[in-house]
């Protein structure tokens, strides 16, 4: 789905202008590798908190727990102790939204989160996903069958040691299963008290509208970053409707190599990735970036 806006001009701030603002000190980027929870404080319309479903408060910079698994998002990490330290340190730094999925590992990300953080600190939100299967390394196959999704919810509850999942997201809409059936299963689990809020992933406004006829939708998780704005129309919809927008691959999967961005980052004694996250935070007040890493130093 193509953007309906010029990708070089978003909300009145061009990419060039953003770089100029950054060099001039307009964007509050924290140097030295620190988490930038307050990177958006310099903008007038944004703040550092967001309420999922209007009453679940989270810091707008979360942590994506995909990369704490093994190579290729498969199996256990090479350094299990480091993975546990990353999770603990993220919470120490103020992260209170951790995003994972049963497909990460599969299962290992959820198990590591429970091992590192349970019993969970008050206010920590664990968001997970179901609906993608992993037949093997590098393979991701949707399964939106209602019975399967219900099993996914129950198994995630057990692995995460939770009585209720605050945010459960349909990892992908399965083209082989009517969306109403998949979402109906999640509604059943929500009505049973096993899910608090429901989210979607990789969807456009029409799909969100269709889903909301079945069950309230609190968040959307689509790929989005400084160089990939395919889902601008979905972000605009989320802003209009007050839905949280969780961009996955928020720093482009480590592929941001732009001389202007590198120069701006160097001027602020920051990394290109910090710059990219700061841009996301100022881009929209509903933006909830979830960058991830397997290294405490990188965190």
Individual helix count: 9
CATH topology of the largest domain: TIM Barrel
Give the C-level CATH assignment of the largest domain. Alpha Beta
Give start-end ranges of low-pLDDT stretches.
1-12, 18-46
Estimate the mean pLDDT confidence: 87
Cross-sheet strand order for the largest sheet: 5-6-7-10-11-12-13
The share of residues in extended strands comes to: 15-25%
Our Rg estimate from Cα atoms comes to 18 Å
Number of discrete domains: 2
Structural class: alpha/beta
> Helix content range of the residues, please?
25-40%
Query: Tell me about the biggest sheet?
Result: 7 strands, parallel
CATH homologous superfamily (4th level) name of the largest domain: NADP-dependent oxidoreductase domain
The H-and-E topology, N to C, reads as EEHEEEHEHEEEHEHEHEHEHH
End-to-end gap: 32 Å
Second CATH tier, the architecture of the largest domain = Alpha-Beta Barrel
Overall strand count:
13
